[in-house]
């Protein structure tokens, strides 16, 4: 859907509110009041609160992905690119409130967006590990297996399992994963 600059601005401001405060308890009236707009203005972004939440989650992931890729582009060393990627993901996730992450996990359509983005990130990790091995910067391990292990951890992070077991936020878990991967794979 093509949005006007005003709608883009509103979606950005709405995203900031939702990732800071969560969305399960917020009504459209609450969101409109917080953004100083009408509910009709919000309905121009999506026809229901549920669809609006999905739009917000998609918008957040689009921006986060762009930021992660920009950070990765600044890292030329093939042995550091996996770590740089995971650290950039951790930095993006650090801005998300626990309320937002809990609401995300509890709302299947939004959680599905998170899952699709985690799958894309896992694919990106597979490619980065293979590139690092091919360049001789990472140990010659089975790239597919190493990537699957990283991906499995990423999915546990996405599902909230590491938070439940270890008390680590998603950002903290990604930062720990980055350190583990670097120590494990560096040639």
Automatic annotation (TrEMBL):
GO MF entry, a single one: DNA-binding transcription factor activity
Keyword line: DNA-binding, Transcription, Transcription regulation
Superkingdom: Bacteria
Tagged with keyword RNA-binding: no
Domain HTH tetR-type: 20-56
Residue stretches spanning the membrane: none
Matches recorded under Gene3D superfamilies: Homeodomain-like (1.10.10.60), Tetracycline Repressor, domain 2 (1.10.357.10)
Pfam family, one: TetR_N
Keyword DNA-binding: yes
Listed name of the protein: AcrR family transcriptional regulator
Organism name: Nocardioides perillae
């Amino acid at each position: 859907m093509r949005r006007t600059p005003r709608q883009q601005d509103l979606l950005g401001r709405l995203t900031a509110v939702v990732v800071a405060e969560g969305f399960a308890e917020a009504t459209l009236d609450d969101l409109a009041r917080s953004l100083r707009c009408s509910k009709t203005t919000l309905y121009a972004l999506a026809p229901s609160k549920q669809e609006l939440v999905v739009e917000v989650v998609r918008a957040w992931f689009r921006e986060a992905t762009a930021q992660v890729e920009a950070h990765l582009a600044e890292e030329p060393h093939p042995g550091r690119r996996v770590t740089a990627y995971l650290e950039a993901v951790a930095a993006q996730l650090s801005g998300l409130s626990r309320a937002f992450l809990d609401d995300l996990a509890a709302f299947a359509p939004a959680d599905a967006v998170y899952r699709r983005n985690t799958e894309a990130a896992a694919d990106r990790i597979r490619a980065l590990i293979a590139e690092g091995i091919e360049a001789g910067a990472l140990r010659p391990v089975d790239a597919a297996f190493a990537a699957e292990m990283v991906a499995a951890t990423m999915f546990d992070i996405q599902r909230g399992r590491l938070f439940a077991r270890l008390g680590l936020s998603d950002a903290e878990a990604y930062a720990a994963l980055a350190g583990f991967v670097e120590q494990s794979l560096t040639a």
